[in-house]
UniProtKB/TrEMBL annotation:
Signal peptide: none annotated. It holds the Pfam family EarP. It catalyses: dTDP-beta-L-rhamnose + L-arginyl-[protein] = N(omega)-(alpha-L-rhamnosyl)-L-arginyl-[protein] + dTDP + H(+). This is Protein-arginine rhamnosyltransferase. GO terms for molecular function: protein-arginine rhamnosyltransferase activity; translation elongation factor activity. The keyword NAD does not apply. Transmembrane segments: none annotated. It comes from Paraburkholderia acidisoli. Keywords: Elongation factor, Glycosyltransferase, Protein biosynthesis, Transferase. The keyword GTP-binding does not apply. Protein-arginine rhamnosyltransferase that catalyzes the transfer of a single rhamnose to elongation factor P (EF-P) on 'Lys-32', a modification required for EF-P-dependent rescue of polyproline stalled ribosomes. Belongs to the glycosyltransferase 104 family. NCBIfam families: efp_Arg_rhamno.
């Protein structure tokens, strides 16, 4: 990508926009601007960073990623310099976005413009999009939902009220007819390599916990979650478990509950604590790629939000989802929609136990570990089958690239 050299000139957006040859998109490198406003936590930038890298590395696109919160971004990508207005990281040109008015160092309109999660594009940028000789493909990348209705709305155009522009809604989803979810081409091979290599596994445990992998009879659980009132009861059940439990907890919003349970000042790496059958390790928050091996190393993964929820499905291990809570419990139908996909083929008893456990983890009832754990073999088999089913929907980046190219023709 040609890096910007001039300051933006909002008075002459037409000339600059027109200077970007739309025809280049059809036969050479596609330029893509991806706008990300971080609402909270890491999911917004987590999804955008993954998508940006993938469009650049797998599809050869020139990606410019606008991000308003470089500090959140740096947690996932320590190579990022939070002091810089612009920089290139892993083949992606990153702009510190002072949304909503700022449109980058240079006002230049890409062939494909993605606004993530309905963030508002700079008005000057939209005006320049309308002036462009050949209109860019404009996509609103929505949040992931497993609900059925999204297949009807996926890729629907929405005309702009003032400009001759249409924006298409791109809906990630778990079922046919949706945009799918992100899956890098190399992911399965990386997982298979980790799983087949006792050395890789041992090295991971040494790095993450300072010790060797636990004995085979232990159940290894990763715990990535928001604050959750159900955790205290669950920790007590793990403490009293008949078999050993090894809990791996990346530092974050649930760490305070662990500190209270173990009576330590803070549950941050490299703290390790034991009570009864439960041994818990605080893990440092890793660079984004470092999260997958944690899922692969565990027998059960507690995940949250959007991106970790997807990674858990690709890991092919049983998982429990702490969905991002919304006002008026609007998240509960989404939780059930995901369950409906995931537990569809389970026999009645494990299915009911799974639903009870997921509901309890999301504020409806009390988690019953003994009941849930009795079905772990069934959940493990189902997780592997579900991974294959989900792969049929296709990778989100590939689906998005294919649609964009069809529009640029
Ligand atoms: O952080 P999240 O809760 O993110 C969100 C946001 O709240 C967002 O506003 C909301 O809309 C969305 O959820 C639904 O959970 P998520 O999506 O799983 O993102 C976490 C990211 O952090 C993911 O990309 C994995 C990454 N991660 C690391 O890079 N290193 C780590 O050690 C861990 C534990 C996670």
């Amino acid at each position: 990508m040609t890096e910007p050299t001039a300051a933006p000139d909002s008075t002459d957006s037409t000339a600059i926009a027109a200077a970007s040859p739309a025809s280049a998109a059809a036969d050479s490198t596609i330029a893509c601007d991806l706008f990300c406003a971080v609402i909270d936590n890491f999911g917004d930038i987590g999804v955008c960073w993954r998508l940006a890298r993938q469009l650049a590395s797998e599809h050869g696109w020139q990606v410019r990623l606008f991000v308003d919160d470089l500090h959140a971004f740096r947690k996932l990508c320590p190579a990022l310099d939070t002091a810089r207005a612009t920089q290139t990281v892993e083949g992606v040109f990153v702009e510190h976005w002072h949304e909503p008015a700022h449109a980058g160092e240079t006002l230049r309109i890409a062939d494909v413009v993605i606004e993530a999660f309905a963030c508002e594009l700079p008005p000057v940028y939209v005006a320049a999009m309308a002036e462009r000789a050949s209109k860019p493909v404009w996509l609103n990348l929505e949040y992931l939902s497993a609900e059925d209705w999204i297949a009807d709305f996926h890729l629907r155009p929405s005309p702009h009220p003032r400009y001759a522009l249409a924006k298409h809604f791109f809906f990630p989803g778990l079922g046919p007819g949706t945009g799918g979810v992100i899956k890098e081409r190399t992911l399965d091979a990386a997982r298979a390599e980790f799983e087949s290599s006792p050395e890789a596994r041992a090295a991971w445990w040494q790095r993450a916990t300072g010790g060797p992998p636990p004995a085979a009879e232990a159940t290894v659980i990763s715990l990535f979650a928001y604050e959750n009132p159900a955790i205290d009861g669950l920790l007590a059940q793990w403490r009293d478990s008949a078999t050993p439990i090894v809990l791996l907890v990346p530092e974050g919003r649930i760490s305070g509950a662990l500190a209270r349970f173990f009576g330590v000042p803070a549950f941050t790496a490299p703290v390790r604590a034991e009570r009864g059958s439960l041994r818990a390790h605080a893990l440092a928050f890793t660079e984004q790629r470092g999260y997958d091996p944690l899922l692969w190393a565990s027998d059960l993964n507690f995940v949250r939000g959007e991106d970790s929820f997807v990674r858990a499905q690709w890991a092919g291990k049983p998982f429990v989802w702490h969905i991002y809570p919304q006002a008026d419990e609007a998240h509960l139908p989404k939780l059930d929609a995901a369950l409906a996909h995931y537990d569809r083929t389970l026999p009645e008893a494990p299915r009911a136990a799974l639903e009870r456990f997921w509901h309890a983890w999301n504020g409806r009832g009390t988690p019953d570990w003994t009941e849930f754990a009795a079905h772990l073999p069934a959940y493990t088999a189902r997780a592997q089958a579900w991974r294959d089913e989900l792969a049929q929907v296709g990778d989100l980046a590939a689906n998005l690239a294919e649609f964009a190219k069809s529009q640029l023709k």
